[in-house]
Amino acid sequence: MNPLLPFDWITALRFLREGRMQTGFIIGGIAIGVGVIVFMSAMLAGLEQNFLKRVLTSQPQVQLLPPDQIARPLRFDEGEFAEPVVQRPSQRVRSIDQWQAIAAEAHRMEEIAVVSPSMNGSALAVRGEASRSISLTGVDPETYFQIVKVPDYLVAGQIRLSSDDILIGVDLAREIGAALGDKINVTAASGARRVLTIAGLLDFGMKAVNLRTTYVSLRTAQSLLGMIGGVTSIDIAVRDIYAAETIAQRIAAAHPVQADSWIRTNAQFFSAMRAQINTNTLIRVFVGLSVAFGIAAVLVVSVIQRSKDIGILRAMGARRGQILRVFLIQGGLLGFLGSLIGSALGMGVLLYWHSVARQADGRELFPLILDPRLFIGAALLATFVGVLSAAMPAVRAAKLDPVVAIRG
Amino acid sequence: MADEIIRLEAVTKAYNTGLPSQTQVLHGVDLTIHRGDFVALMGPSGSGKSTLLNIIGLLDRPTSGRLSIHDTDTGTLDDAGITRLRGRTIGFVFQYHMLISAFTATENVMMPMVIDRGFPSSEIEARARGLLDEVGLSAVADNLAPNMSGGQQQRVAIARALAMNPDLVLADEPTGNLDTKSAADIFALMRRVNAAAGASFLIVTHNIELAKRCDRIVEVIDGRITQYGNAGRKGAMA
Fold first, then answer.
1. How many CB contacts within 8 angstroms connect chain A with chain B?
2. Residues 6+ apart with CB under 8 A from A188
3. DSSP letter (8 states) at residue A286
């Protein structure tokens, strides 16, 4: 016994040590609970990060587009409709009106990190006898690649977009029999044509995307698509990705543009992810509750078993507050020790699962995220739950009448 | 009186007060214990002696009357004050040893000092070992309580009761659970401690032979007390 320690700590530690089988079992129970929480939280964080990385590095978080063209119904002078059925007009590719002013204003918003104008359209990639329809995206590489991480998908060549360069997908290159450094003809629907050099090959991990996606410089795209000085979209990266929809709505309300956020364009994925997070939270709550009831049950039994000891301690001068703390400390220690073992357990299972769980192409199913905050949070939460669940038995112990307790 | 430790004046104790099942356990008890007294408390089962002991030990409060310790009216103290006074003034020895099984003999003796913090931390263990030495238990000082004999446990309990230098030790049938020789040894030990440390003893016992060796006998019958002095002993009847 270290007499420098306070009475309540000495007694709490000794009571736990004496009932080592009970202590061991409850710490085991807490460890399993905390292990489940740590494992699930880390795995879901990895899956979420994986999903976000895939979504947010392959598309802008907010995209401003020209508003849809709407046909107005023809009316007679009296205001009656001349033709009640109005056919939706086809949407031709056109530039955003006053895009420089809108981009400049977006750039001034604090919530927005990067703004990049781009030009999108369809074209044909032709090499010899082979031709494939492609989606042509003209970008300003300096800003656009901060939003869409195209360089992350480069598998050959370099990210270079001079006016004669083009970046294409590996599957498109294979289909038209082109290799890095080869020249291909790119023909727009208007008939405009440019000969471009393949500067880099990209692999997005999806054949359909690899077959269609190409990048050229903004000026090249404007020239090919016949819109010198125009852009068809303003792409935006925001500082808080979960605020993207709100920011999009604000911009759409202030300017004549259609604003789409990644949240809306990936609504199904997003709600699936939210559902996963909610499920994880529910599991954590119920595991936490079962841990709390376990600690409370053990300490209630301990109070009954130790009522004579409590009576003696009270007779020796222990105050109610000291007895209360003896049991609160036990609860906190059980939670803390259980969380340490549980964190190690959860991490072990996570490492194992990460090493065996693979995607069909052999890549990892989720990135391994071992955030220290998760372990610190688990320890704090388990300790808090331990103290909280010890409250009822501790109050009961503190209220014991020493005469009754000693008599047994 | 300067050496008066405990004074009870017209103390009564009733349970279930105000109910049809009200039970009057003590009726107007007057009792004084002085420094160095060695008093036997006797009486048949159910006579009220345990209740009287609990009231004197500040484990229970009287229904009416006054209990003073060193001229302090304990009725004016709150729970924390009562607990502090009890820890510093009174030591307890129970019939069934009542050591805390999670602690060694030394640690059991250290506990009152650890609770109260009245002694410097560096001296607590040395004092506990010194007390165990006084009761002849140096050899088993590091044994856990359950690994000691009944007589040894009772000696540890006496050492523990003396840890805070109390003015009064209350012993509830301290020899009741021991064989004749151990009982005689324990009684002799208490007598020796009483003479050496000057602590007063109030001992509940059913053993008339032991009671006769005390300075004074207080008999409780139906909640009322009668006192006898023992010839040839100091401090005859108060």
1. 75
2. A121, A122, A123, A136, A224, A225, A226
3. H
Helix (H) or strand (E) holding A275: helix A267-305
Strands (E), chain B: 4-15, 23-34, 38-42, 64-69, 72-73, 90-93, 168-172, 200-204, 216-221, 224-229
Cβ within 8 Å, pair B86-A14: no
Strand partners, A358: A364
DSSP A56-73: HTTS-SEEEEPPPP-PPP
The CATH number given to B4-229 is: 3.40.50.300
Contact B92 A403 (CB under 8 A): no
ipTM greater than 0.85: no
* pTM listed for this prediction: 0.71
Burial A53-82 (b: 16+ CB within 10 A, else e): eebbebebbbbbebeeeeeeeeeeeeeeee
User: How many whole angstroms separate alpha carbon A224 and alpha carbon B232?
Assistant: 128
Per-residue pLDDT of chain B (238 residues; tens, 9 = 90+): 448 899 999 999 998 877 877 888 999 999 999 999 999 999 998 899 889 999 999 999 999 999 999 888 999 999 889 998 998 899 998 877 678 988 999 999 999 999 987 788 888 999 999 999 988 888 999 999 889 988 899 889 989 998 888 999 999 888 887 788 888 888 888 888 888 878 899 999 888 888 888 999 999 999 998 877 764 444 434 3
Tokens 């935006």 belong to residue: A236
Q: Which residues of B touch A309 (CB under 8 A)?
A: 100-102
